[in-house]
Amino acid sequence: MSMSNIVNKLYQNNTIIYKVILFVLATVAIVYLFPKGGQFKYDFSNGQLWKYDNLYAPFDFAIQKTEEEIIIEKKKIEVSTKLYFQYNFDIVSDVKANYQRRVSSFKVSDSLSAQEINTLKLIGANTIDRVYSKGFLEVISQDRVSNKNEIIALRKDNEVEDVVFKTLLTSKDVLRLINESLKVIDNKYSSELMLDLLSEIIRPNVTYDNDFTEKIIKNEINNISYTKGKVSSGELIILKGDIVEGKKLAILNSLKSESESQVWTDSNYNWIILGYSILVALALLMLLLFLKKYRVEIFENNNKVTFIFFNVFSMIFLQTMVIKYNSDYLYVVPLSVLPIVLKAFFDARLGLFTHVLTVLLLGYIVPDSFEFIYLHIIAGIVTILTVSELYKRASLFISVAQITLIYMLTYFAFSIIKEGNISQIKWTYFVMFAANGLLSFLSIIIIYMYEKVFGLVSDVTLLELSNTNSKLLRELNEKAPGTFQHSMQVANLAEAAANEIEANSMLVRTGALYHDIGKMLNPMYFTENQSTGVNPHNDLSPVDSSKIITDHVIKGVELAKKYNLPDRIIDFIRTHHGTSSTYYFYMKEKEQNPDTKVDIKRFKYKGPIPFSKETAILMICDAAEAASKSLKKPTAQAINDLIDKIVNKQMADDQFLNSDITFREIQTIKKVVKNKLMNIYHLRVEYPE
């Protein structure tokens, strides 16, 4: 095989090669994100029946305490540990020395005799001893203990003695003790002198020792045992049909963590990676097969396939990050954004299918996987059923409120099944579901960003484009008012037909409004704009006339690209005449050249033919509306025959071969178009002059 053949082969298969690369990259990226740990082979949760056979311990292991039990134990230690206070001997020595110095300066005078001075010295020294025999507590340390009868540890140098907290003296106690000691002194002057002296020099010598207390608490916490018993190999753990609760739950949790840590060795690493890769690859393969079988136009568009894979990866990335850093916030991640976004750009079925696969993938890595999967699949179904018409602000608000309510209700049901009552419900989860609901509103911003990045179109953009006051449609109205009126009529017909066969009515309406914009470059060459009765085609050959008519499609596409209209709208411009011919000018050419064989290809539109229900609806409605204007007497029978003739001709010319429209749907569209046209052309009652 030559080099050029290889290049051609690659070029022809480039979309498949791209999908294979995308598939492999997505699988590797998702497996890389997953927490790498062996999976326990039994699935269980509190309050559930044990649905497996009797379970015996496969090896010896310790029963681990739960996180709650360890927290309670730590709190117990913090509450029950004795508080340590420091007794300072240096302060006592300083006070006594200071006292001796001050009383030695007392002089014999009229107010004080030598005997009184000696008595005062003894009383003062005795009072100081009494204060410091118990200890004088500083003010800042007095509020450390709420119960005054509590026993505290008093550190005196290297010794520690237990004392009742209330035996330590406060400022008030010291003052009372001084006053009691001085009662024996009759001399008022002596009494006041001693009161002032003692009040001034006696200082607190007992302080709360925070560092030492914390050290003791820390030490005790470090010595906590994280296990509460042992299970021997071969010991019965749980019988089939037993309820998983209490001690059985604790043993199962311990066996699970022990098994997972034993599975997770270097030799098993590659096998576990292989297992994850197969599971992820299978889920992504199902998504590709679904697209290939039911959404061929999406499957063939690499941009759209990339967009879907990117959304799946983004959701898995967000959820794994939350699990990695704090699995308590598991339900804050708004997974319902995925079906909202996919429904906005594609359809409900694809949105739900992708959402279910994403949730199943996440089921491997979340705690309580069954609860997680059930919650999110139910929420996804509610999302798909309720979220519609995103361009209506109230619509999304009501939908998100319903989704949040379903989350809360489902979690409530799971909680009472597990616990058997409502006392154990974690109310913080309800706050998380509310936060999840609020974050779901981000889907509007995300949709807008995706439109810009991936060039997709949502209903919100369609609503903006279908505003007849937009620049391009205003220009069409000014330059080709007849074409503008025709486009409006076609839009009404197409919208009604789309609603009847459950196609995207917003898309077909917007496409109909823009389908003939190419006519505004040569408006007078199209019948609907010839208000003066002058027909410029009279001065042209049929071939030239036909070229001007068929060129309105090409010029329309160019104009649409210039104004940055989305590809989905440009599709309507390209396909609304398919590969039909300008039959009038073809027959005229044949009349003028009876001896020459006229090639009909010169009078045909370049195509392509419609490739969706919506583009097929536009083709029917466009031809029907235009032809109805040519009826001299638009009676019900005339309209009926005309529509049948037009649609039969389009079908005979294979114009609907590529659009996924059924014969029954075509009949329904014909019926809607006939009714609408009859309503437009019905005869009114003649009013008297």
Describe what you observe in this structure.
This protein is mainly alpha-helical and 689 residues long. It folds into 3 domains: 223 residues, no CATH class; 144 residues, no CATH class; 223 residues, Hypothetical protein af1432 (Orthogonal Bundle). Helices cover 62% and strands 5% of the residues. The chain has 28 helices and 8 strands. The strands form 3 sheets. A 4-stranded mixed sheet has the order 5-4-3-6. A two-stranded antiparallel ribbon has the order 1-8. A hairpin with a 2-residue loop joins strand 4 and strand 5. Helix 2 packs parallel to helix 12 and helix 12 runs parallel beside helix 14. The protein is elongated, with a radius of gyration of 44 Å. The mean pLDDT is 86.
In brief, what are we looking at here?
By secondary structure, this protein is mostly helical.
Features:
689 residues; mainly alpha; Hypothetical protein af1432; 3 domains; four-stranded mixed beta sheet; two-stranded antiparallel ribbon; elongated
